[in-house]
Amino acid sequence: NATQDTDSEKGVSLGRWMGWDLAQASPRALFARGAACGNGVRRKLSVSFECGHELRFLSMSEPLSCVYKAEMAHPAACNTSAVAPGPEVLPPRRPKDEL
What we know:
Elements: E1 2-4, E2 12-21, E3 28-32, E4 44-51, E5 56-64, E6 67-74
Parallel strand pairs: 4-6
Antiparallel strand pairs: 1-2, 2-3, 3-4, 5-6
């Protein structure tokens, strides 16, 4: 979960983890279904990553009301040849005979 602390409010939910958006050149972490704003819209956040030698916060913006965008530097974003992991495929479960 992603939260926001301000001078007037603590722990305001910007959203819960929804997964990765891998459609762009660099992955984006998506959070949605956060706390409702005054207009009834629920907050959401997307976090973009760029190559960096260490984890570092770069910027935060609110381009639309209750829609937040953050940018982070992270070493994992430097390896552009890596393939994103897919869902693990498990064999089907079958009933067992117990003796």
